[in-house]
Amino acid sequence: MSGWIAGSGNGRRPPFPESTPPDINHSVLTGMLSGDPQEGRSPTGGPVTLLRIEFPVADPDHPQALWSWANCLVEVPAARARRDIEGLRGGASVLAAGQISDRWMVENGHTSRRGVIVATLLKAGPPP
Predict the structure, then answer these.
(1) How confident is the model at residue 2 (pLDDT cuts 50, 70, 90)?
(2) Which of 2-16, 90-104, 111-125 bottoms out in mean pLDDT, i.e. has the lowest?
(3) What architecture does CATH give domain 27-123?
(4) What is the DSSP letter of 121?
(5) Which of 19, 95, 105, 122 could be joined to 84 by an S-S link, Cβ 3.0–4.6 Å?
(6) Residue 40 in contact with residue 48, Cβ under 8 Å?
(7) Kindly report the CA angle at 34 between 30 and 39, in degrees rounded to 5?
(8) C-alpha separations of 126 from 33, 38, 91 in Å
(9) CA–CA separation, 49 vs 64, rounded Å?
(10) Which of these, 34, 26, 29, lies nearest to 101 by C-alpha position?
(11) pTM score
C-alpha cells in the first residue's frame, strides 16, 4: 500500500485494485427513501447527493416474518443525481446498486464510521 489518502491534492489517483475474486464488492438495494435527498461531499470533496434508504429485514429463522427495519446511506455522484433522482422525495421507492464503502460522519456532535453504497445505478419507482 502506498499510503495514498483520498483528496490528498496531488492530482494523481492510484489505479483501482483488482478484486479477488472479481466483482466481489457489488451491492443492490431496494427500499423507500426515509427522508428527502441531502447534499454532501465525497472523500475527494466533490458534490454528492445522500439518500437514506429504509428496507424490511426478514427473520433468519422465519423468512416470512418481519424481523426489523434497517437503513443504508447511498452516495450518488452529482451528475448521476441530476439525471436519475430529480424530484425524488421521502417515501419514494428506489433501487440503488454500487460498491460498499466507509465514510466518517458527524451526527448530533458524535463522529462515527458508517457504511455507504456508492451508487453506479439508481432507479426511481417500485421494483418490477
Answers:
(1) very low
(2) 2-16
(3) Beta Barrel (2.40)
(4) E
(5) 122
(6) yes
(7) 100
(8) 12, 21, 11
(9) 34
(10) 26
(11) 0.73
Question: How many Cα neighbours within 13 Å face the side chain of 55?
Answer: 19
Residue 105: Cβ within 10 Å count:
14
Q: What is the 3-state secondary structure (H, E, C) of 22-43?
A: CCCCCEEEEEEECCCCEEEECC
What pairing do the DSSP bridges indicate for beta strands 93-107 and 27-33?
Answer: antiparallel
What are the residues facing 21 on neighbouring strands?
none
Q: Where are the beta strands (DSSP E) in the chain?
A: 27-33, 38-41, 47-58, 66-77, 93-107, 110-124
Provide the residue type at 16 as one letter: F
Domain residue limits, the chain = 27-123
CA torsion, ordered 15, 85, 81, 24, to nearest 10 deg: -10
Q: Distance between CA atoms of 52 and 90, rounded to whole angstroms?
A: 9
Place of cell 426511481: 124
